[in-house]
Hints:
alpha/beta; Rossmann fold; five-stranded parallel β-sheet; 7 strands; globular
Amino acid sequence: xxxxxxxxxxxxxxxxxxxxxxxxxxxxxxxxxxxxxxxxxxxxxxxxxxxxxxxxxxxxxxxxxxxxxxxxxxxxxxxxxxxxxxxxxxxxxxxxxxxxxxxxxxxxxxxxxxxxxxxxxxxxxxxxxxxxxxxxxxxxxxxxxxxxxxxxxxxxxxxxxxxxxxxxxxxxxxxxxxxxxxxxxxxxxxxxxxxxxxxxxxxxxxxxxxxxxxxxxxxxxxxxxxxxxxxxxxxxxxxxxxxxxxxxxxxxxxxxxxxxxxxxxxxxxxxxxxxxxxxxxxxxxxxxxxxxxxxxxxxxxxxxxxxxxxxxxxxxxxxxxxxxxx
Length: 326
């Protein structure tokens, strides 16, 4: 099947996660497999799959909902939702085939973290595709989001606090509030939806990759442990630092958040986030809530230091009301 996309997606792999959860690292490791072709984040299936949802998007042409009503009336005459799914599948096969064909490889990996929003729809359009759900301690994700995209000056010698452009935070609202719940409720498709933890990937990369390869029916190759992936095009999307570091060097990143929260600003955000997650995602994606509380308690700033901090709802521009908040 080299160069062509199977009609039901048997040679497609989708990788979804919260941003800053290690998806670029895993992409580079999988992309080093001789059978695999991948590119920087396509974001391609988001718009098509939202056509299968009943809400969640607006467009200039909607005209108060008439566009959807007319479309549904039309589809009702030719097979309804099944006709739409078949059409989306044919379109996606054509586009992914154009990406895979020139590579001469057998399988295509689409790594787009925000596919967390369309996991049921992806499984519907491509019932034979593999979907890898990559999880990371959500407090570590929050710290990484802030440190990478919001922090303008890090803490330094004699300066415990960093400086932050908090006006950037609303852009990551769904990544922080909606994504954990959507990842935790990913569709259960035996043999097709696979959950993986970032901490396992960097802690035991060989065993974790071998296990994932077995589930993906992908032969393991030692090059995957090095993440060697020559020819990956440069892109604004993804983690550019991952291109320069050896995967094994990421081990320390799993616990870096416990140092980050020594900044009172990040401590306050993490404390609020943990409280929110305990309401919205009771399982905390499988992470030990007691251990997370203990780590925060160990770094607790004084009441005076907390006075100058901002709450998570303030920086996100949305009250945290509990289950379903986005």
